Amino acid sequence: MTKTAIAIRHLMFEDLGAFEPVLAAKGYALRYHDIGVHDLAQLRAQDPDLLFVLGGPIGAYEENLYPFLLEELALIEHRLQAKRPIFGICLGAQLMARALGSRVYPGPTKEIGFAPITLSAEGATSCLKHFKDANVLHWHGDTFDLPSGAVRLASTPICQNQAFAYGDHALAVQFHPEAGNIGFERWLIGHTMELSKADIDINQLREEGKQRLSQLGVQAAACLTEWLG
Predict the structure, then answer these.
(1) pLDDT in tens for each of the 229 residues of the chain?
(2) β-pairing, 135-144 with 104-116?
(3) Which of 124, 66, 67, 76 minimizes the C-alpha distance to 99?
(4) Number of H helices, E strands in the chain
(5) Three state DSSP letters for the chain
(6) Exposed end of the chain (fewer CB within 10 Å): N or C?
């Protein structure tokens, strides 16, 4: 029987990237559920074998501006309670933290660009060990408190809670392990205003992406392969 994977996508160019070939190799049929296009009410929390919640440039606490967030939070909470596999990235990780009762709020500064993560003792034995000593891609301004019952897996000087596990079924990461070497230019175009306001050198970021994203794609594939088992 074919396994199903659904990815909740908030921006068309922030997709599963380097994770997609792993899912295909593992026998998953992948479908994107695009916010603003598809109705979240049609996505029952326990339907897919695997659920991803991807990134986006809005705050996990901005339901006054984006009412769909409340429905998305309820779906995530239901899935977490059911102990069904869920993987959150960036905004997805923040929504998972909020669904578990933690506060999400603006960090001390935006964290955009390539920089290493520091793995905790638990992180060093998790699937994130494949990113040890790697400069991963960061692209967020918000952060969150570690949820009760969660295990911190990684940190950076700017963001204490870069990644956490909640049981064996839930993994949340603030950085972008899925960003591969194909399609990065879309990020530079789509986030041009944010990069400009943050005084980020786009040419430098592009060149660093050329140097790092191919290898990061290999590490991401190894990470997801191990997590899926």
Answers:
(1) 789 999 999 999 999 999 999 999 999 999 999 999 998 888 876 689 999 999 999 999 999 999 999 999 999 999 999 999 999 999 999 999 999 999 999 999 999 999 999 999 999 999 999 999 999 999 999 999 999 999 999 999 999 999 999 999 999 999 999 998 789 999 999 999 999 999 999 999 999 999 999 999 999 999 999 999 9
(2) antiparallel
(3) 76
(4) 6, 10
(5) CCEEEEEEECCCCCCCHHHHHHHHHCCEEEEEEEECCECHHHCCCCCCCEEEECCCCCCCCCCCCCCHHHHHHHHHHHHHHHCCCEEEECHHHHHHHHHCCCCEEEEEEEEEEEEECEECCCHHHCHHHHHCCCEEEEEEEEEECCCCCCEEEEECCCCCCCEEEECCCEEEECCCCCCCCCCHHHHHHHCHHHHHHCCCCHHHHHHHHHHHHHHHHHHHHHHHHHHHC
(6) N
Q: Tokens 């050329």 — which residue?
A: 210
Which residue in this structure is represented by tokens 């769909």?
A: 68
What would the two tokens of residue 118 be?
A: 């520091």
